[in-house]
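Technical annex, item 7. During the second reporting period the consortium partners agreed on a shared format for inverse folding records so that results from different sites could be compared directly. Each record opens with the tokenized structure and is followed by the designed sequence. A conforming record, contributed by the partner at site C, is shown below for reference.
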């Protein structure tokens, strides 16, 4: 169990460090115009480097334990589309629980792991934003982004 716990801890720390690394602003410019321009350039580079790649033209294989949690979230999203009176905040809580289960069961390594994180980190951000949505219009837009993220997932992963 020690090895398994270490793997989980390593995966969780990787997610956290990637999140903070991608969000950090290393610009120390005094001029607000220069700082803003540098920040925009940095985000453009991050977006370009975050493009998910196929595995030599083939979808990446996600470990079965992790794929179960991803498919559970995808099924929850599909079911939620059919709900007439949508409670977006409660739904975001369900997705966040599944995200915690997913990250605590991280067993992947190498390039497949890195590529999955390129999908997972923006997905986590969108779910967090959904939990804080100020109105139904914003929540609906974020929910559409969550739906689109599963199209992306199924394009690059199996």
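Designed sequence (site C submission):
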């Amino acid at each position: 169990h020690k090895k398994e716990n270490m793997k989980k801890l390593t995966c969780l720390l990787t997610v956290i460090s990637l999140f903070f690394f991608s969000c950090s602003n290393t610009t120390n410019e005094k001029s607000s115009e220069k700082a803003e321009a540098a920040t925009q350039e940095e985000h453009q580079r991050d977006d370009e480097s975050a493009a998910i790649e196929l595995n030599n033209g083939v979808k990446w294989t996600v470990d079965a334990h992790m794929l179960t949690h991803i498919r559970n979230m995808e099924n929850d999203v599909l079911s939620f589309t059919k709900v007439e009176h949508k409670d977006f905040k409660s739904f975001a809580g369900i997705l966040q629980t599944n995200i915690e289960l997913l990250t605590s069961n991280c067993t992947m390594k190498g390039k497949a792991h890195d590529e999955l994180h390129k999908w997972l980190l923006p997905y986590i951000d969108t779910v967090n934003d959904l939990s804080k949505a100020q109105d139904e219009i914003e929540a609906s837009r974020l929910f559409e982004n969550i739906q689109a993220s599963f199209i992306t997932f199924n394009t690059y992963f199996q």
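The helical segments are 2-23, 32-49, 64-80, 88-104, 110-131, 136-156. The longest helix spans residues 2-23. All partners now use this format for quarterly exchanges.
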